[in-house]
Amino acid sequence: MPAPAEPWTVATAAAGTTVAAVVRERAAEPWSVVKRWIESGKVSIDGETVTVIDHRVRGGERLEVRLAAPRPRDPAREADLVFDDAHVVVIDKPPGVSSVPYEDRELGTAMDLIRAAWRRMGRRAVETPLLVVHRIDKATSGLLMFAKSKRAEQVLGAQLRDHSCERAYICVAHGAPSARTIETHLVADRGDGLRGSARHADQGKRAVTHVAVRERLRAATVCDIRLETGKTHQIRIHLAEAGHPLVGETVYMRDFENGGGVLLPAPRLMLHAATLGFAHPITGEPVRCERPPPPPMTTWIDARRIG
Asked: How many CA atoms lie within 13 A of 94 on its CB side?
């Protein structure tokens, strides 16, 4: 697969064209090849690596293709270990990363990120167990903990079951939800193929979500969420059923759209696990971890602020 031998200057007439189209025209290679070059960090503009295929040029830049260039570091795929001792590890999970493997041989999970971080530290990552205590959605960013021993797994699991763990989220919901406590019983299929609230209290599992208003935006609201229980997709379901689906929602928005609601465009699901507090499973000492939402979420919020 030949690449242009020398850097070249992008024509002024190409302004507004995607970098993929510019490279393809110059190299006369298939789209699949050009896409692979860009996504693996082989293309640079004015000396800066570009990995987004639909990045648009303005004309006049110096563009270069170097097949020997190393794959760029992806900070979003590197683990931020917020707490890590002999018994517990807490990671600030990036969005788009599964908590645990859901399919055979699924790679790039939060567990993989933790082990990769340990290897960089020179630790024996394979020999250290990672026991699942709880999960957060793949689309959700934020704090996620694993136990490193059976004793820690049992104690932390008990704290989650008796609701003594502190679990707080920041989210952005459509419209203007009010401060309230939402309590329903969730079932795997509410009748239309989606998870949702049962019509009768003797069905499903009890789910309690406490909603507080942090900030009003244009056509949306930043909310602080405290989970009393932690059921699958609980926050997403409760806000959607209240008429305020989360911004970036791709599953629980059918009722909102059918009612005439217009979904706001967003780069991701606007949900972040910001606080995780628990009693240390061995010492009993309080542990409280906090992480703010990552830039794609805060940038979106900044752009929607009133005034």
From this structure: 16
Q: How far apart are CA 303 and CA 270, in angstroms?
A: 14
Q: What share of the chain is helix, strand, coil (3-state, %, to 5)?
A: 20, 30, 50
**Could you tell me the end-to-end alpha-carbon distance of the chain, in angstroms, rounded to an integer?**
52
Given the residues 104, 137, 189, 224, select the one marked as catalytic.
Answer: 137
List, by residue range, all CATH 3.30.2350.10 domains of the chain. Answer: 75-303
Residue 145 tokens read as 């903990």
pLDDT at 78 over 70: no
CA–CA distance, 155 with 190 (Å, rounded to integer): 33
For residue 55, the 8-state DSSP code is P
Largest distance between two CA atoms of the chain: 71
CATH class of the domain defined by 8-65? alpha beta
3-state secondary structure of 275: strand
Q: Position 225: which residue type? A: I
**Rounded mean pLDDT, 65-90:** 81
Candidate from 2-16, 129-143, 278-292 with smallest mean pLDDT: 2-16
Four-residue CA torsion sign, 114, 116, 121, 126: positive
Q: And the tokens for 296?
A: 């794609």
The CATH class of the 75-303 domain is alpha beta
- Fill in the amino acid letter for 92: D
Residue 137 appears among annotated catalytic residues: yes
Nearest-angstrom CA–CA distance, 289 and 280: 12
Q: Give the span between the Cα atoms of 263 and 132, in whole angstroms.
A: 34
Question: What's phi and psi for 36, nearest 5 deg?
Answer: -65, -40
Write out pLDDT tens, residues 140-175. 999 999 999 999 999 999 999 999 999 999 999 999
pTM for the full predicted model: 0.75
